[in-house]
Amino acid sequence: MEHVExxxxxxxxxxxxxxxxxAMHIGGGSIVAITAPDQPSAGAEVWDVGDLVVxxxxxxxxxxxxxxGRTEWEGFATATRAAAAGxxxxxxxxxxNSIPPTVSAQALIRKQEAAAGSCAVDVGFWGGIVPGSExxxxxxxxxxxxxxxxxxxxxxxxxxxxLGAAELARVLPLLAELDSPLLVHAELEAPMVSAARRFARxxxxxxRHYRHYxxxxxxxxxxxxVAMVGELGRRxxxxxHILHLAAASVVPSLQALRAAGARLTAETCPHxxxxxxxxxxxxxxxxxxxxxxxxxxxxxxxxxxxADGSIQMVVSDHSPAPPELKATASGxxxxxxxxxxxxxxxxxxxxxxxxxxxxxxxxLARWLAEEPARLAGLDHRKxxxxxxxxxxxxxxxxxxxxxxxxxxxxxxxxxxxxxxxxLAGVVEATILxxxxxxxxxxPVSDGSGILLTRRGAWATN
Length: 461
Description:
Layout: E1 6-15, E2 18-27, E3 30-35, E4 45-48, E5 53-56, E6 58-63, H1 76-85, E7 88-93, H2 105-115, E8 122-125, E9 127-128, H3 137-143, E10 148-151, H4 165-178, E11 182-185, H5 193-201, H6 210-216, H7 219-236, E12 239-242, H8 251-259, E13 263-268, H9 270-274, H10 296-307, E14 313-314, H11 346-356, H12 361-375, E15 393-403, E16 422-432, E17 435-439
Parallel strand pairs: 1-4, 1-5, 6-7, 7-8, 9-10, 10-11, 11-12, 12-13, 13-14
Antiparallel strand pairs: 1-2, 2-3, 5-15, 15-16, 16-17
């Protein structure tokens, strides 16, 4: 066996789709071997965590860090500290809402310069495609982006406009040739335009009622978008990934498109799995996101889609903004920024609700680590406990509970729809490439993270 510096033992190690006693032998930042827990230590430091759960460090492939340009919304330092405290060892940053957006190799360099030396966990980057930026696709792939994101509807920021069907049809064959996935904010404006206009005509007092905002973005917007982009992707032969699925009524379309040969995957988010429209109080703009949090019927359908494999993963879609942009004072859903901060809470949120519905920790590892790593092309090193992978571990107590206090989270702004919610699942420690970067109750080790590229060598930090 190669030189081993640290052995982490537990009676609850989740690997290979199973949970049981094992020892993780770590050396040189990688997993050297996985053995029975009584394997001799040969002089290595031994950390026996007893009945605490050991899983691969979580991978969050949908995070809006917003730096540079809108660092007052979040930033690499605060976002990655929150990630580490939540058991996340790798994030993949979205190409917006930073300025400039990551739609060229030059913009990617700006991102990397902003991130270098500031990250508590490892960071990869998505590229973006907007009208007129198609010429930069190849250079971004060569620079190591994990794939490309597009909007089919107004993104909320002027520097990242949407693509139409004709533009998608042009870029999808190129992405297929480059084996680079296309990530789609799958809402179409046409099925929603009348409802959106009705909502805009309401006075501010009426716009405090969540049901009016929900009605302004009906499920048809998601349904028609997935049908369109899924068929375009099938014809091009490229990989298409549906972001932040909120409408469970889309699941049959996902199944049908895959049966017809589409390379189609989908994700959902903790807010769609744990919250429901019927429970949102008037003026509670911390709940606003797009697509919107739908009814309990949709929530149940999304869980069913995860259970049968129609939906592959759960990511945060961490999209923070200052309290004034969330319109917390007025409670006007029409004025509020649409985004929810949950990077640090993804594990306990999904575990608390998932356990209640009968899901075990192997499923959790698949949804929160393995599948996001595979989507981003980082699964050669991230998301799995196996020899040769990075020694990224989360050690957590599945039975311990806590009440969410937004002021104690590492996110830049204490705005959360989960305030005072009791959750199960407490992160005791996070290990990044063999190094402990977080212990419960202690500080996060800043500057430990490096910058990643898809299926290749690491970028410099």
